[in-house]
Amino acid sequence: MTLSTGAVFALGIFAAFWLLAGLWAVGRGVAMQRRSAFVAGQTGRLAGLLEASPYLPVVVRSDWRIEASDRLGRWLGLGPGPRSFDELRGQDAGLDAEGHEALRQAIIGAQRGARPFTLSLRPLGGTRTIVVHGAAAPQNVAGPGSVLLWLSDATDGEQALARARGERDEALAAFEALSGLIEAAPFPMWFRDTELRLALVNRAYVRAVEATSANAVIDEGVELCESVAGVSATDTAEEARESGVTQTRTIPVTIEGERRIMRVVDVPLSPNDGHVIGIAGYAIDIQELESERGAHRRFADAQRELLDRLSAAVAQFGPDQGLIFANQPFRRLFSLEADKIAEAPPFARLLDVWRDIGRTPEVRDFPEWRQAHVDWFARAEASEEDWLLRDGTHLRVVAQPTPDGGLLLIAEDRTEQVQLASTRDTLLRVRTATFDNLFEAIAVFAPDGRLHLWNQRFRRLWGIDEGTLAAHPRVDTLMGELADRLAKPNQVSVVQEVIRAATLERTQRRGDIRFADGHHFDFASIPLPDGNALLIMLDVTDSRRMESALRERNEALVVADEVKTAFLSRMSYELRTPLTSIGGFGEMLQAGYAGKLSDQQQEYIAAIMDSVEVLSRHIDNVLDLAQGEAGTLVVERATVDLPALLDKALASARPLADAEQIELVGNLSDALGTIEGDAPRLSRLVAGLLDNAIRYTAPERREGGRVLLHADGDERGVDIIVSDNGPGLPDAVGAITRGTQAGTATGGIGLALARQLVDAHGGAMEVITEKGQGTMVRISLPRRG
């Protein structure tokens, strides 16, 4: 079949149309494929962004189906992503019933009223905090009735917020506490702003300036510290701000109308950048501190003055180990000169010097010894040593570290103590041997009544074997076994009672017993310091036999003593009569009644009058001594001015002291006052003591002899002390102690008369003397007899 040309043309056009349509379709498909790939890529990127976002989108449709990623299940502790709203509730995970219902009601509210909401939920079994922001979903996204939820994990944020809140609360509390502390501070405190104006003051500041309130102080700019030497408080604050360094000054300040010494401190406040934002200040009252410092200085001066008077050698070293003080005994002991102390030599150098002059003990390694002693400064407790020097001197050295890092060194010469200790040990051994060989029977009983010690005389007297005594029997058991040895067995209870009184009552008792063999014994129990009791038994059989003879002899001696006393009294009166005549005629000659005398005659008359005065005083002394021994010495009672009496005694004794080249020193206290007594006899008493002291010091010490009259008193009485550095009067003191009279060569009559006069005035006299060391006589007299 042959097609026409038009048909062929139409067929060609149709084929071309279909070809063009196919090409357009292919191109359209390729474009759509490319767009689909682009959309898929964009969707993947958006999904990745959503997955990386801290927010999780969740769509809740009107039928309560859920569209969300698997992160929702992980956040809620559920399995793979839930697909319905009810799946969000679980037993051990997901939302609890309360949270699930609250979310449901919020979604319903958003569906009905398109109201957005925000909830904070905490899933079960976890520590997450999920914040839910919800609102109605756009129509073109999820359809009508859908709700779009945005969930965010606020766990870290909540914790950080909680920490921030806690830190804020702590900071606020600290600020409040600091503000309360500043406000309650007992001393003024203030703060200045950048313009150096007062911006804050506490109550103590307000009280100090006597203002009505803190606001009034700030408004009026009332300054606590006034200008001193042209420097005001703001000037000091300005200096602190400019230098950035705390400024401290000590100035007088008027506090509540009272002038006080204050330490004022201005502190620049600046953050880390170094910019000063203000000046804080405070003022501390140091008035008491300054007063205490002054008192401390005065105490230190008084302490050093006291140390200078001690017999012990004392030295003080500072924190730098330099010598800052040494008293007189220390200077003498270690041969230190005053200018040497002024140089403050170090302790180590002094040890070297002392070694050279023999003032340190001999040691094998001196450098090591010296370093060990230098280490005294670093110790926390005192050190004590005994030093034996080359010349035989024994020193007890105590080193006490001081709180300031220094050292207090005390050295005491114990040479005499060591010698005395050696002598004491010897005496103890002698006493032990003597105790066991005494003629008296001696036994010592413990406080519980048991026999503690005994000597052989005690064992032989009672006829007891050594084994019985070694068992230390009680006194009642022991005396019970010995009762048959007495003439009267019941007297054994007397011995027991005497021992009991000494051990329990601490009283001394005496008694006497007679043995069956006719022997008589006196016994006594003496309480001992350690609580024991000493029983002493003495055989007085022969004494009893001689007692009657001795009594007769004693009566004869009493009669003879009365005759002697009467003779002394009579002789004193007999001697006084011609002596009075001699003195009267001598005064007449001196007055020129017999004509004018030459110079030599005047000297003779003066010597006669001096002798008359001395002899008259001796007669008065003998008469007083005789009356005292006879018990008839009577003293007058009148007011005696002691300073005048003692001054007169010193004046009377001074010519003799000057003639004998003896230094006579008087040390009379202002508290002497007056007493009631016999002024003439007291004057003779003091004059006699001074005369004795001068006369018995002169032969021994022609150079360096010294006699001191010291007197002091209080409201009860006075003490008069006469001391010398002469040869001592041990024989005279022994005679006075034994109640006998010593010869005039020893001064015994003077001491005996002095004791009688002191006793007559109701006082007491003490004589301390040592051969070669001098004598001291102390007289204590009451204010009123």
UniProtKB/TrEMBL annotation:
CDD domains in alphabetical order = HisKA (cd00082)
Origin: domain of life: Bacteria
The keyword Transmembrane belongs to this UniProt entry's keyword annotation: yes
Q: Which Pfam families match?
A: HATPase_c, HisKA, PAS_4, PAS_7
The record's section on SMART domains has: HATPase_c, HisKA, PAS
Q: What is its EC number?
A: 2.7.13.3
**Which parts of the sequence belong to the Histidine kinase domain?**
570-785
Q: Which reaction does it catalyse?
A: ATP + protein L-histidine = ADP + protein N-phospho-L-histidine
InterPro entries referenced in this protein's UniProt entry, alphabetically:
HATPase_C_sf, HATPase_dom, His_kinase_dom, HisK_dim/P_dom, HisK_dim/P_sf, PAS, PAS-like_dom_sf, PAS_4
Report what the protein is called.
histidine kinase
Q: Which organism is it from?
A: Sphingopyxis jiangsuensis
Taxonomy of origin reads: Bacteria, Pseudomonadati, Pseudomonadota, Alphaproteobacteria, Sphingomonadales
